[in-house]
Design a protein that fits this description.
The structure is a single chain. The protein is α/β, with parallel strands linked by helices and 370 residues long. The chain has a domain of 249 residues: 3-Layer(aba) Sandwich (Alkaline Phosphatase, subunit A), CATH 3.40.720.10. The protein is built from twelve helices and twelve strands. The strands form two sheets. A ten-stranded mixed sheet has the order 5-6-4-3-7-1-8-11-2-12, sandwiched between helices. Helix 3 packs parallel to helix 12, helix 9 runs parallel beside helix 11 and helix 10 runs antiparallel to helix 11. The structure holds magnesium ion and zinc ion.
Length: 370
């Protein structure tokens, strides 16, 4: 009996150990070489929905495997502005409305673009506003108040970017605060500069041997409704250009700036047109990312604008949206992620986490703010 009991227990043990599951080999963590951050200014869920319905019920955002939501409030206000929100993405700190790349104490915070530049990556900013406007400015400049456009412009000479495309040439060429010609200063630094008065972006022949700046307007670029069409072109050109500028990878921010403006004006049709343009731009970026395989694409918004709603009586054939305000709202805004590291962007978190997730994925060491 004793032997039988022993035999049984051995058998049970053997059986148990046979049932112990094999440890699953852990998936090696994937890191992107390149990050393209796309910001739809003022692009809440209703803006996305309206653009989608107007586009035959389709949006390129359906191609993103990961979605998340972010809280957009600034340090002192529930309702953020684009400067505080872009600084949250760029530096990872909640700051006051109007702050361009400075923290709540008005001290400069080193941006993800400046870090990328420091660690040898190529960098680019593309916008359909002036390039000195709050959203792009927060990635490159450190200024206490967003309205100091000429001060912001000086940072484009000060910082070694690889590519900028946007309006606002007058803050470089026709300055009130001094007689500097920053257009010339950029050229003297070795940047190839062109602008709307010389040629459209699509006609530029650009060598990857030099950084490139293109001014799309003297002040603010036109709306899509008034014929602007360079954003999808820029999105086709920029990733490929930046890839050739550094073997270490690149950081690129692309902004659909005027979704916000259309919503401030409570112009639903205009907002839909800006959304269709941004959707096409996302398609161009995805085409690059799919072929490249090492590029993380993040699409998000700095805040919602207009308290936009789709109400009873709407139909897909003619979208007539309604607005509840002519300013921003504090509603959560979505995040879409595609590519290596995309899985980090699911869930509900603060807008500042976008910065920390990007920095962790690019594996930048801790940096001191300068
Ligand atoms: Mg903006
Ligand atoms: Zn706005």
């Amino acid at each position: 009996m004793k032997n039988l009991a022993l035999l049984l227990s051995v058998f049970v043990l053997a059986f148990q150990s046979a049932r112990t599951p094999e440890p699953v080999p852990e998936q090696p963590e994937k890191f992107p070489k390149n990050i393209i951050l796309m910001i739809g200014d003022g692009m809440g869920l209703t803006q996305i929905s309206a653009g989608m319905y107007a586009n035959n019920d389709k949006t390129n955002l359906e191609r993103f495997p990961i979605t998340g939501l972010i809280k957009t409030h600034s340090s002192k206000s529930l309702i953020t502005d684009s400067a505080a929100s872009a600084t949250a993405f760029a530096c990872g700190c909640k700051t006051y409305n109007g702050a361009i790349g400075v923290n709540d104490q008005k001290e400069p915070c080193m941006t993800i673009l400046e870090q990328a530049e420091t660690f040898g990556l190529a960098t680019g900013l593309v916008a359909t506003s002036s390039i000195t406007h709050a959203t792009p400015a927060s990635f490159i400049a450190h200024v206490e108040e967003r309205k100091y456009m000429e001060k912001i412009a000086e940072y484009f000479v000060h910082t070694d970017f690889d590519l900028i495309i946007g309006g606002g040439m007058r803050y470089f060429t026709n300055r009130y605060t001094d007689q500097r010609n920053l257009y010339k200063e950029l050229q003297e630094k070795g940047v190839v500069v062109s602008d709307f008065s010389i040629e459209p972006l699509s006609q530029c022949t650009v060598s990857t041997q030099h950084p490139f700046a293109y001014f799309s307007a003297l002040d603010q670029p036109e709306s899509v409704a008034n014929g602007r069409n360079y954003l999808p072109q820029a999105a086709r050109f920029a990733p490929d250009f930046l890839r050739q500028r550094s073997e270490k990878g690149f950081f690129l921010m692309i902004e659909g700036s005027q979704i916000d403006w259309a919503c401030h004006e409570n112009e639903g049709d205009k907002a839909v047109q800006e959304m269709l343009d941004f959707n096409e731009t996302i398609g161009e970026v995805l085409r690059f990312a799919e072929a490249d395989g090492n590029t993380l694409v993040i699409v998000t918004a700095d805040h919602e604008t207009g308290g936009m709603a789709l109400l009873r009586g709407e139909n897909r054939e003619s979208i007539k949206v309604k607005f509840t305000t002519d300013y921003h709202t504090a509603t959560l805004v979505p995040v879409f992620a595609y590519g290596p590291g995309a899985e980090k962007f699911g869930g509900l978190y603060d807008n500042t986490d976008i910065y920390y997730k990007m920095r962790a994925l690019l594996r930048f060491p801790e940096v001191e703010s300068k």
